[in-house]
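Reminder to self: tokens first, then the designed residues, so the page reads top to bottom the way the pipeline ran.
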């Protein structure tokens, strides 16, 4: 039996898909590229934006065109959103599996429909030199624009001991970088007794040898100066990179979004991080065109982003999600689409210039680059501070290794250089 898997959205989805792929392979199923003909297609979907839902529908149609006899199993947030809305699918070969326990639901479906016994391994088999480890699921911080708390309800943390076993297993398999991820990563441990995310990081660093650790994303309202102090004290095994979603630089809009912090509080966190680690990369997400966003709000966001000097910005036009407060506001005070698009274009250009400046600040300096791929004699990977770095690698023998690279040039997309002696 041939199975194709497509993963959309967050790193949590990627970690969950990795576990399913391991189960398929261990059961003797042939895992094929999603673009190939398969008997079953699994789409691990995202519903954070309207664009994410559009892509989900697109991949469903693509799978059905490729093999009209195949079954398409839709899991993830889009499946839950559609079930929540009572959305009925006209195509009987598409099956919504909307349980919170998506991996177990897939196993049950395969057993009942095909008589195939899938067994979820304790940990996914690594297929790359970077691995995503899910440590937490769920969010109950109801930002006014976000569906996620309705779709991934309640905070559920894995035990630190179980996470440590997975990380030690991955390290033994040759993984060099572990990215800790969660629906709302900073909530890790809230449902456990006296353990926090920084406690987990200290445990992992103390009980592993060479693997380096990266955090996928941290909400600004969930961590403190003490977290930053302990985080950077862990040394070079911790990637100096913090993804802190801003969403807006206007305090009026931040309050309307129910984000739980002001621009000043956000700035204090960034300033503290840079005082402790001057070369830290601060990446972010920004939403423009939020209902009621005036030009002065947008300009405040532009100025704030320039002041923060982000190393990378993901800029999105506001996308109304049915069931949220902002969905109703959009009807009354929505920003016209052409204006949203203008603001997106402008802020993307600001982001590119900030990325260029950050990348070029490392010309003549050394970065530790995890080489992840090689094509046409050029190795490509990420540095510890999440810069995409290209380096000549004629034989492709450096894939999966962390190498010292002297940066010789840079632009807004990344940097390039050559490997130097330790």
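Designed residues (422 positions):
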């Amino acid at each position: 039996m041939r199975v194709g898997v497509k993963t959309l959205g967050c790193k949590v989805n990627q970690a969950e898909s990795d576990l399913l792929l391991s189960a398929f392979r261990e059961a003797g199923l042939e895992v094929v590229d999603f673009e190939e003909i398969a008997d079953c297609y699994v789409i691990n979907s995202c519903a954070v934006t309207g664009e994410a839902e559009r892509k989900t529908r697109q991949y469903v149609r693509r799978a059905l065109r490729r093999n009209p006899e195949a079954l398409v199993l839709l899991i993830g947030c889009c499946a839950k959103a559609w079930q929540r809305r009572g959305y009925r699918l006209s195509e009987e070969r598409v099956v919504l599996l909307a349980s919170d326990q998506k991996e177990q639901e897939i196993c049950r479906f395969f057993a009942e429909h095909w008589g195939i016994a899938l067994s979820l391994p304790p940990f996914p088999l690594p297929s790359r030199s970077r691995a995503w480890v899910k440590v937490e699921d769920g969010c109950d911080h109801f930002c006014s624009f976000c569906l996620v708390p309705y779709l991934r309800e309640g905070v559920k943390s894995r035990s630190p001991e179980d996470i440590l076993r997975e990380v030690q297993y991955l390290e033994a398999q040759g993984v060099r970088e572990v990215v800790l991820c969660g629906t709302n990563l900073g909530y890790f441990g809230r449902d456990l007794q006296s353990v926090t995310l920084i406690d987990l990081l200290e445990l992992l660093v103390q009980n592993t040898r060479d693997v380096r650790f990266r955090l996928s994303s941290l909400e600004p309202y969930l961590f403190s100066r003490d977290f930053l102090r302990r985080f950077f004290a862990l040394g070079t095994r911790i990637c100096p990179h913090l993804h802190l979603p801003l969403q807006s630089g206007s305090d009026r809009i931040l309050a309307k979004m129910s984000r739980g912090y002001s621009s000043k509080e956000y700035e204090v966190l960034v300033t503290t991080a840079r005082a402790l680690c001057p070369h830290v990369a601060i990446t972010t997400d920004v939403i423009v065109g939020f209902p009621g966003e005036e030009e002065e709000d947008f300009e405040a966001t532009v100025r704030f982003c320039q002041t923060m000097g982000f190393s990378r910005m993901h800029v999105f036009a506001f996308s109304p999600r049915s069931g949220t407060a902002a969905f109703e506001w959009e009807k009354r005070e929505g920003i016209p689409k052409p204006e949203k698009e203008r603001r997106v274009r402008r802020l993307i250009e600001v982001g590119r210039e900030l990325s260029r400046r950050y990348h070029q600040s490392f010309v003549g300096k050394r970065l530790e680059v995890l080489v992840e791929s090689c094509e046409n004699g050029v190795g490509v990977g990420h540095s510890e501070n999440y810069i995409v770095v290209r380096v000549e690698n004629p034989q492709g023998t450096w894939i999966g290794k962390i190498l010292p690279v002297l940066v010789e040039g840079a632009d807004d997309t990344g940097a390039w250089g050559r490997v130097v002696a330790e």
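The mean pLDDT is 94.
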